[in-house]
Amino acid sequence: MADVLLDDVSRVFPDGSSAVSHLSLHVRNGELMAIVGPSGCGKSSVLRLIAGLDPLAGGTISIGGRVVNHVPPGERNLAMVFEAAALYPHLTAAQNLRFGLALRKLPADEIRQRVEAESRVLRLGRFMDRKPKTLSAGQRQRVAVGRATVRVPDVFLLDEPLTHMDAGERIRLRTELAQLQHGLGTTAIYVTHDQAQAMAIGDRVAVMRAGRIEQIDEPRALYMRPANTFVASFMGEPAMNLLAGFIEQDGGRTYVVLGGQRLPFPGTPSGLLRGRSGPVTVGIRPEHVTDAGSEPGLPVLFSTAGRIERLGHELLVSCPIATTSVAVTDTPGVEKQPDIPATLIARFPRSHPVKRGDRVELAVDVSELSLFDPDTGQALWNPAA
User: Fold this and answer.
1) Model's pTM, two decimal places?
2) d(Cα 265, Cα 292) in Å, to the nearest integer?
3) Which is it for strands 32-36 and 204-209: parallel, antiparallel or unpaired?
4) SS3 118
5) Among 153, 3, 152, which residue's Cα sits nearest to residue 63?
6) Integer distance in angstroms from the first to the last C-alpha of the chain?
7) Would you call the peptide bond into 269 cis, given omega within 30 degrees of 0 as the criterion?
8) Among residues 229, 254, 224, which one has the least CA distance to residue 244?
9) Beta-bridge mates of residue 248
10) What is the distance between the alpha carbons of residues 255 and 264, in angstroms, rounded to a whole number?
11) Per-residue pLDDT tens for 101-142?
12) Could you tell me which of 228, 81, 107, 225 has the C-alpha nearest to residue 162?
């Protein structure tokens, strides 16, 4: 068992472009760290650097306190599962599980015991004599996971292992992966572009953008207290509403203004928001906006119902607001996208009779507002813990 420490690590391609830039990350012993971010942000490159598959351009990687910058991949005691299961096609599931143990010349009895135990944990018993081409994507990935974990490595690396599965299979296998990892007590790093997977499986989650880490925290803290607009927009489905607004002082009170409509500020502005007036980016999660009839007593915004998505357990109602949406790009420092009219997504009860074009009163839980600097995107105010 071992922790993993990346200290000021970089990865540069031969053409000079950077995949990972001065990244530092500490994965604790026995922790399951999820790394999430958009395609091309460098998250898979981080795994390949840890595994020794890609060359370092700078920085230090340590596993269990040992610097491994120049240690060959086969001597790092890591196991890796890729997006595609990458099984040996001519071997059965059982032979795939045994292969790595046989290479290490373990006793036959120990190999048999380990393979049998792994097959029970991953429910592979009835597939053990079948070859990969006869298995479903989920079954093949179970075999790939078993082939990695049967060795009981120091560190378990998973690179988008559930991408090609249907929704139900993804949920089942991600639960099994988390249970297996915690049962083994192995340090694990799980890379995905799916924030729901990261939130569900990670003890902590690192959010990446353009080769750098934007924020690392426990899933709930990331969701409730995003460090900037990128994290706010990336974590959550549907994403946080980000709208151009203002902070306004009037009669000794503070208001958040959206399109000419005022919401009372939740509490007394403090910290970075103390004494501030003028433009801000206002963040509101859809679950904190609903029909006023369902949440009487909350401040209200007036709008009309636009697109309505009926999801069975709830309605998602898109409501135009007379301001602009704030667009967040995957690459920091690029030119801002053109302003687009704001639409506030609200969650309504599933039985609500709302129809497109209806006038709606939206109750807003102002205690759950987040406010960000409109120029830097950095958080000025987040809900209390």
Assistant:
1) 0.88
2) 18
3) parallel
4) helix
5) 3
6) 33
7) no
8) 229
9) 255
10) 5
11) 888 888 888 888 888 888 887 788 888 999 989 988 778 888
12) 81
